[in-house]
Amino acid sequence: MTALSYGRDSSGIVVTQGRSAPLRFGVLASHTPTMCGVANFSGALCDALQATGASVEVVRVADGQHSVAARVVAELTGGSTDSIAECAAVLNQCDVAIIHHDVGVYGGDEGSDLVAVMRLLEVPTIVVAHAVPRHPSHQQRTVFEEVLHRADRIVVVSDAVGDRLRAHYDVWRGRVKTIPHGVTLAPTVSAKRSGRPTLLTWGLLRPGKGIERVIDAMATLREVRGQPKYVIAGKTHPRTLATDGESYRTALSDQVERAGLGTSVGFEPDYRGPGTLAALVQSCAAVVLPYDATDQVTSGVLVQAVASGRPVVATAFPHAIDVLGSGAGILVAHDDTEGLTAALRSVLTDPRLSGAMAAEGRRLAPSMAWSVVAEEYATLATKLVREKRTHA
């Protein structure tokens, strides 16, 4: 069933044929209980949209796990034409479809199942670009550009990502819109920072995080006053665990042992809920994001660290370039261990610098709240519905 065309009255409520109704979103994405950045993002955005009064129905990318979330109404099974048709039909019953795109999420040849779904869609479509590969394979480019062409709007989390998208792909500038990555604004946590200052990297552990360089840097930084320690918090990424087990974590542990850094570097592999994670972040001296990948265009860890008022030292991936550009952190070049070491030393030894970074992060935080981000998505969705109604 094709969705009805809605507009909004002055109160922001969706109106059709003289009746008021909440805007109805169909979301196609990885979703709980999947553990990955896209699933975290899509879940938080769905929560925030529902908080505005909107209706949200999720088509979850199947991964062998069972979701008990009430809003999950269908699953996209890789390689199944019946599933593709069913999922498209579900999305077509909504007013607007929000599709989260990332490399490796969808089935088919380099995600071609997503293209198959989009070819069947009749409702306005917003694509959230979680990855913008600079050097895609021929098939990756073919799939991604068709996804871009079929979208009514493409959302990126920063202007730097939008610039990269327009530079490397055939996409019309007017269809690209920047909406920041949202963040949950936790209440202020009373955190003790007495004792040894802590550098923190957290998130799902997998190769490409650049943690090796921070371990190398600790060989020098352990001599800094206060004897800082480096904490690596988080479980191993499920995909890495499925293919390689704990070999990456073991390799990092071996590196620590060889360098004699057992008292300076520690691992916390346990899952942390929002409250204990907030306390951990608040207790650290700085958050380190030394990612190898230059294609990292979204980072929930980055925005959470900034919104928590913690100084950030990060490699110059696109999302970090925009978020840290006003002074909330320090950017370093990829593969520059000396530059990384110098930046961390500055944060650890210069209270004025670290204090200014923390203050800038707190200033930025309200504009990144999920409630604010959800309103931007709702406004964009309403505009697209009106455009479709006008051209119907």
UniProtKB/TrEMBL annotation:
Q: Where is the Glycosyl transferase family domain?
A: 190-362
Q: Which residues span the membrane?
A: none
Report whether Transferase shows up as a keyword of the record. Answer: yes
> Gene3D superfamilies annotated for this entry?
Glycogen Phosphorylase B
Organism of derivation: Mycolicibacterium arabiense
Single GO molecular function: glycosyltransferase activity
Q: What is this protein called?
A: Glycosyl transferase family 1
Q: Which InterPro entries match?
A: Glyco_trans_1, Glyco_trans_4-like_N
Glycosyltransferase subfamily 4-like N-terminal domain mapped to chain residues: 37-185
Q: Name one Pfam family in it.
A: Glyco_transf_4
Q: Which UniProt keywords apply?
A: Glycosyltransferase, Transferase
